[in-house]
Design goal:
The protein is mainly α. The protein contains 14 helices and no strands. The chain is globular.
Length: 342
Amino acid sequence: MAGPAAPANPAGFDAAPLRRAARWRAGEFAFWLLPVAAYFVFPDDLALVSQVVITALFVLSLDLVLGYAGIVSLGHAAFFGLGAYAAGLMAQAGWGDPTLGLAGAAAVAGAAGFASSFLVLRGADLTRLMVTLGVASMLFVTANKLTPITGGLDGLQGVAVQPLLGRYAFDLYGRTAYVYCVAVLFVLFWVARRIVHSPFGLSLQGIRQNPLRMPALGTPVQARLVAVYTLGAAYAGVAGGLLTQTTQFVSIDVLSFSRSAEVLLILVLGGTGSLYGAMLGTLVYMTVHHLLAGLNPQYWQFWLGLVLIGVVLFARDGLMGGLRALRAAAARWRGPRPGGAG
């Protein structure tokens, strides 16, 4: 006689909230119509808009590491630069296929993220800041010294990228590059969205909020942090590879501290722990940056600083936090729904 059937979910885990959170909402569809509209609204500025898309992917990679796992970093440009140089060197060697170059950039940056994660994750927040900054500084100096390979301060030149899918060449107007960058961003965003709305992503948020309690619940904290750090590094490598392929040049600036600081600033501006915060922060920062630099080339950094201070004062959790606060205020203003529902 057969015994009683085992319960379908022995751990008692209710996946329904995750499934509800993973559903796409109308606002998200509207958001992703913006890149489509930009193709037609800014046909002469697609090269500039492509840089916004690439930066958004770079900020998204840091959001996975900092916003969801709580791993602070001041050297995230190390993986961005490794991806940029990997794609450029592959193109110089005759492997100029764009998709192959992105795969190589992701592999190199991901491998570096995996190797350095065991050192980065050993300490607390301040230690991690110093270690990540030290790793990025070492790579910057190494790239500067290896002039025959990297070009040093002159940059890596002679990068020849083959047509996308063997048919669509990268034109001077940036049409192919823009569509290519948006497609890569959307695919990787979709993957990241699936991850953060999975039990793995939920455990990352638990680790960020209470790293001491999660091991008691059976969560392999170290393995989860290594995995997300490697993933974030691979995402940053893809962003660097996109920059190389769309500009066909690699500057040593891709490994600089200023790039790491800028991406951290953009993420804080948009709001950590929100994938759309990374996208919104990039859009606002680069738009304001472009407008202020055109209006006041000498003191644009002063006015940009005022804008950032204003966001910090009135939106403590970044732009996404401010939008959530406005939405909650609007809900309170409307009052309870008919029938007693709040």
